[in-house]
Amino acid sequence: RFSGTLDIHRSDEIGQLAKSFQLMTEKLSENDRIRKEFISDVSHDFQSPLLNIKGYAELLMDEDLKEASRKNYAQVIQSETERLSSLTKQLLLLTSLDQLSSPLQLKTFAVNEQLKEVVRKYRWLIEEKELSLSMELEEVPYTGDPAFLEKVWENLLLNALKYTEVGGAIEVLLTDGPDHLTVSVRDTGIGMDKGTLGRIFDRFYRADDSRTQKTGGTGLGLSIVQQVVKLHAGTIDVTSKKGEGSTFTVRLPKLS
Ligand code: ADP
Q: pTM, whole model, 2 decimals?
């Protein structure tokens, strides 16, 4: 593999060509480093549930096992399998976003209906955690990729639900503008400090207090959100205060 630098002083065509090769090489090795880091993170995240599954399956084979323990061990195996499954799904989604060979599948649809649908999907969790949910949705037709955008709302809502204590409040707002729409998801949850805020869009990043909670995350959700928003030429902003809550705001320009 080529490494090192070419010394270029010429401004002719060959010189220009060599210069762009050099830039490409630099970019490639940066990509290479990111890819290696990514693979090592993925392996690590697969390893621990696999170890748990193996360990508890072995324990289950003990013939003298008490009924209560049997149930307990089977539950661990089930939840670790679910974890692996959601990790795989998220990874596949991220990979498909990275290597998007075909353009987005654009459709005109009502974002307000889509948001309602996503909230409906998590009604059970909202009730289980006794959260109060308020929605203010303007009617907004928008042209974008509905399948990818659904993941954005789903990840933001699920995070708000996961990182908010029992009895907290969640707010989902959708407003229309002349050339863009804005979706905000606000929660009164655990919030984040500055250090955490700077890293939440990194792949696999999870704040320490999120790791210790039994929320079952992968650290990939917000990377997916960011990627999809970027593909729609939009922006995402976060404001948060530790112990008070967070607000995620997505702005999408109207593409057509
Ligand atoms: P995860 O699967 O861990 O939720 P994400 O990529 O969706 O992964 O989020 C990365 C991290 O950002 C989370 O682990 C958590 O520490 C922090 N985070 C995301 N959303 C919120 C929120 N609404 N409130 C507090 N922390 C959040």
A: 0.79
